[in-house]
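Budget justification, computational time. The allocation requested in the original proposal was used primarily to generate structure tokens for proteins on the priority list. As evidence of use, we reproduce two of the resulting records. The first is shown immediately below.
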Amino acid sequence: MQLLGHPIGNDRRLFLIAGPCVLESERLALEVAEALAAMAERLGILVIFKASFDKANRTSGASFRGPGLEEGLGILARVRAETGLPVLTDVHETWQVAPVAQVADVLQTPALLARQTDLIAAVARSGRPVNIKKGQFMAPGDMGQVLDKAMRAATEAGLDADRFLLCERGSSFGYNNLVNDMRGLAIMADTGAPVVFDATHSVQLPGGQGDRSGGERRFVPLLSRAAIACGIAGLFLETHPDPDNALSDGPNSWPLAQLEPLVERLLALDALVKQAPDSER
């Protein structure tokens, strides 16, 4: 599959989706994006900047949601123009798809909306690549049906149906906890779609702090290594200069200053794994 002019796949070099959970300000977005652009150039990898203009699924109605559609798209457009990075953001409703697709290079559907047929069809008809997150409540094999919905909608619209990514972000494990079954990465790869592993949301503790979600940031490298050992196309890492004071998902975000050393080590593992026969991954 070609993603923004780059060949990607579960047997190709790892690419990265990274950025703050939510657009807190233009200044923060540019700070993170400039660091990511410099890292992408040094490491020679595809990096896609990710941030949300609206977090519609916050634990508490009092939590910060973001700047909203108009201001958020303006910030993303400036990030793209000033850093050269492609940008990704998520859409929660069908009416958001058209304006977002005019700015974002890649669209994303939230995990909690993975079975919303109208939303999946709308992003598929946008013509943009789409990162489709697996619901925390879904078996990995169920994502084959979601992919079929997207491909059917694209084909019916006369569009390329080979532009969908499937993203693992953990499965519900009792209350306020997630777990990763690494077999799921192989099961989703059996669909033929490139698989992305969301390492930072996988260590989230949903609603774990009562009025907000918690997280176990220290497990991000461990789960990233495990996923890469399975053979994946891309890695999703939310990052922030000061995670402890981030306005969303701070407990599971990786510190920006520590991102490049981590990615460098993960790329070395990725190269080693992808030299092995498929039967050993």
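The second record produced under the same allocation is shown here.
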Amino acid sequence: MSNYKKAYIAGGCFWGMEDLFRNQKGIIDTEVGYQGGENSNPTYRNHPGHAEGIELTYDPTITSFKEILDYFFRIHNPTTIDRQGNDIGSSYRSTIFIQNEEELKTAKEIIKIVNESGKWEAPVVTTLEPFDTFWPAEADHQDYLVRNPNGYTCHSERFGSFLQ
């Protein structure tokens, strides 16, 4: 496990993102939680400024940060500020939590590719925020759509890869 890496992203309700990412090649584990907000130990009922995000544990010999971001931009709308589907507010913002210079460079490269593709009708507004603490969400939010297969999600694969 020491060779695995972690990526931190947010793109709307964490249930839908987790459900789609769990089946991607190279993704070893997913966990939903809160990031980028004002309080410590946030909860679903009290997470001011936090985004609903996911922690992805991945095997870099099978997938890359670049491929993760490619998929991220295909399964949520990165052109809406603080909104995904019916979910509105800063909790639902599109964000990549950057851990180092390499991730920052890759994120900027992918955003440029996505914008130049013209697949989305508006430019990407995804924020690049420095990584801080990832706070896992309560147990009833983990693997939510596995336990509730007809539960709410606003995520779906909208396009093929931007990297082709």
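A brief technical remark on that second record: The mean pLDDT is 95.
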